[in-house]
Amino acid sequence: MTRFARYVIVAALLGLFGASSHSVGAQTLSPGAEVFAVDPAKVIEVTYRSSKMMLIAHRWQTRDRFTLIILDKQNRKPVTCLAGPGFDVVLNQLTSLKLRRALNAKEAKELLQKNPVSLWTEVVVRDYTAVEPFRALLMPVPDVPNEAFVHFNGVTYVVDFADQVSQLISSGCKLLAAPSPHQE
Who's near 81: CB < 8 A, 6+ residues apart? Predict the structure, then answer.
């Protein structure tokens, strides 16, 4: 077999694999399956960027608490705090996205036409492994509690997403921070 023939075969197999992973693979997941999951104890950085605010959570070592940096369009100065139990709720949600259903290509196209990606929230979750960080676009499902659309790797899903998480994030350090040692 010539070298060119080998390249053609490899390219064809990669094309088939790539096509199946984006279209067929999305349909084979069952409701309740995680479309994204990572151990929250291994996460070192989370970024949550909407059109109105940005949350950056970072820690150098997995045993450390996260330092939160909140940037808000209404407030020119960043706010920082150490993460507390409120952030744990956010971290647990962003590191385990459970499928309600996958959108087919037509539904996804209509959704993206009605809601351009510039309106979606960008989420990036990085752990300490060599794996590329998880990058996705997220948008609550209008008028449906505890659901969100998540779009990554060319596929759009409807996932479980607690309304409480959006409320916690939008409150900034007020609800995400660790209580002061002087508070009881």
Answer: 67, 68, 70, 173, 176, 177, 178
- Going by C-alpha positions, the residue among 37, 11, 26 that lies closest to residue 158 is 26
The tokens for 108 are 């996804």
Confidence (pTM)? 0.79
Q: How far apart, in whole angstroms, are the C-alpha atoms of residue 69 and residue 79?
A: 6
**The two structure tokens encoding residue 173:** 């350090």
- The torsion angles phi and psi of 116, rounded to 5 degrees, stand at -55, 150
* Angle, vertex CA 96, rays to CA 92 and CA 101, nearest 5: 140
Q: pLDDT tens digit string along 57-109?
A: 999 999 999 999 999 988 889 999 999 999 999 999 999 999 999 999 899 99
